[in-house]
Structure formats: structure tokens, C-alpha cells
Specification:
Elements (H helix, E strand, L loop, with lengths): L1 E11 L2 E11 L3 H19 L3 E11 L4 E10 L10 E5 L2 E9 L2 H14 L6 E4 L2 E4 L2 E5 L13 E7 L4
Antiparallel strand pairs: 1-6, 2-4, 2-5, 3-4, 3-8, 3-9, 6-10, 7-8, 9-10
Length: 164
């Protein structure tokens, strides 16, 4: 894993999004992500929607059960959506963040360990479905359509912190 920037605390504004949300087991989750990403590109491009980085958001994390995930894109303006693609937001707030290349699992561990060492508290509630996050995502700064090698993607990992 190569860390390009961070870890650090960053403040982000609210950003409009369009996304496809689903629940899937952890095993096979990334294959589901890839299919949803292709579907999202197709739908947004066909609708003429202007969009920025595509992201993979983890709403609920349960590594031994089901993951509540969303594949989305930051849009230039709010969108109406359709039967599959729904409008949403990446909420404003303070985030623990880093940008990395390769080894997402190690990057997540690095960011979580750093935040814990800094005494930072994530916007997270542990419930019967797993860890429910106020906002946890990976934004693909490298366009997956132009770089097929996932090990070369630059990815921003961000987890929202509790408001102080």
C-alpha cells in the first residue's frame, strides 16, 4: 500500500449524489460493486448527468453477515433519479481521511488505527445489523473506465467523525 496523502482530518461540504444501494454478503461484495458501477456509469451517461468521482459507500458493515453498500457518484447538481438510481448526499462534516493506492484493507486499518491513536470518534453506531456509519466511503480518484488495474487506482478513504 502506498499512502499518497494523510491521514488527516478534513472538512467536507455536503455534496449531491446519485447512487445504487443494495445489501450483499461481504464475500462477493466487490463483484457486486463492479456490476453496480458499470450500471451507474451507463445510466448517468444516458441521462446526460454531469458527475465527479464515483464512490463506494459502506452504510452498514458486518464482515460476517450482510453489508449495506452503495455505489454512487458526486453530481454537479441534485438529480431526480429513476427506479434504480436514487438521489442522495455525502453529508457535510469532519472526516478522517487518507488517499492511497492498492490494498484497501490495509488502508482502512491504517486510517482506523490513526484515528484511534488521535482520540477521534467515528460517526458510528453498533447495532444488530452491524456498524452503521454516518458516512464512510472510498472515492475513486482514478476513473475505473480508463485504468482497469485496480491496484493502480488512487482512492480517497474517508470516515465521518462525530461532531464536536
Amino acid at each position: 500500500m502506498e499512502i499518497i496523502e494523510g491521514p488527516s482530518v478534513v472538512t467536507k461540504p455536503e455534496r449531491p449524489t446519485a447512487g445504487i444501494r443494495t445489501v450483499t454478503p461481504f464475500r462477493g461484495m466487490f463483484a457486486v460493486r463492479d456490476k453496480l458501477m458499470a450500471n451507474l456509469f451507463e445510466r448517468l451517461d444516458a441521462a446526460g448527468v454531469g458527475y465527479g468521482p464515483v464512490f463506494f459507500r459502506l452504510h452498514v458493515v458486518d464482515m460476517d453477515g450482510d453489508m449495506d453498500i452503495e455505489v454512487g457518484a458526486v453530481t454537479e447538481t441534485p438529480v431526480a433519479g429513476d427506479e434504480r438510481v436514487r438521489p442522495g448526499v455525502l453529508p457535510a462534516g469532519r472526516y478522517a481521511a487518507l488517499t492511497y493506492v492498492n490494498h484497501g484493507r490495509r488502508a482502512n486499518g491504517t486510517l482506523i488505527d490513526w484515528a484511534n491513536a488521535e482520540g477521534l470518534t467515528f460517526d458510528r453506531v453498533t447495532g444488530p445489523r452491524g456498524d452503521e456509519f454516518g458516512c464512510r466511503y472510498e472515492a475513486y480518484l482514478t476513473d475505473p473506465r480508463t485504468e482497469r488495474m485496480k491496484t493502480r487506482w488512487q482512492i480517497e478513504l474517508a470516515i465521518r467523525l462525530l461532531a464536536q
